[in-house]
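Issue 218. Parser rejects a valid record. Input:
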Amino acid sequence: MKMKKFIAILATVSMVAAMAAGCGSSSDDTSAEGDAATTEDGGESGSWDAANMITAVTREEGSGTRGAFTELFGVVDEEDNDMITLDAQTTNSTSVMMTTVSENEYAIGYISLGSLDESLVKAVKIDGVDATAENIENGTYKVSRPFNVAVKPDLDNPVATDFMAFIMSTEGQQVVADEGYIPVAEVEAYAGEAPEGSCVVGGSSSVTPLMEKLIEAYEAVNPNAKIELQTSDSTTGMTSTIEGSYDIGMASRELKDEEAAELTGTVIATDGIAVIVNQNNPTDDLSSDQVKNIYLGDVTTWDAI
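Output the parser choked on:
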């Protein structure tokens, strides 16, 4: 009888010990699974893994920046049709483009160089050349395009006419230079008449930041004028000027033949297109062909660069 009690007690102790060991093992397994998950997620927070998919970010159709980008990098077919991959994520403004890339470590995008905010994103070299106004001016950075404004040949708004004269004056082109763009050479001092009234300027979101500064400078010398600025895209800028909704249209590209047939265009500055990546992306230099292949959809991961 005593022997049976001893065996029962011994069995109970063994069960308790097994349960304790099982609990310890479960805890260890959970820890191991956590370690494995951490490894699969790329280790420490903020690490960058080149095996990840590239998120190509583009501008909307009608954007002058998109048109200039596809032309300059050759992301077009034999008939110059836009061939940007349908997998690309579309944004509708320069600011949204920068925000999108700043929030995605594996994204790549493109913006007006003059709008670049290096606290948000990083501009990569193209073919070994830094994207700077100086390099655009000396011809080593090839990815550049004109900023155009356009009016009807029979423009009869005195404020719009005077504002155009200010933009193309020494004072106006100094604003262009101060904002990091390439100014137009051989201009003269502003000698306007400061007319009273208003006008509407609209179009490209890439030209908008520069135009805001030009309007601010003009209204300082002509407090009698009020200029309304509407931001859309280059194509809308031109069509709305033709239709009469805008007195002055903005385009971050060359005017198309059909636009030039109805409008008088004026280059007010030269701007570069900066190819941007997330600040955590270690990529510092891309060739023109690499950018092209990303946007054609032929290269889809960063380790294929």
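Fixed in the parser; the record now loads. The CA atoms of residues 64 and 252 lie 5 Å apart.
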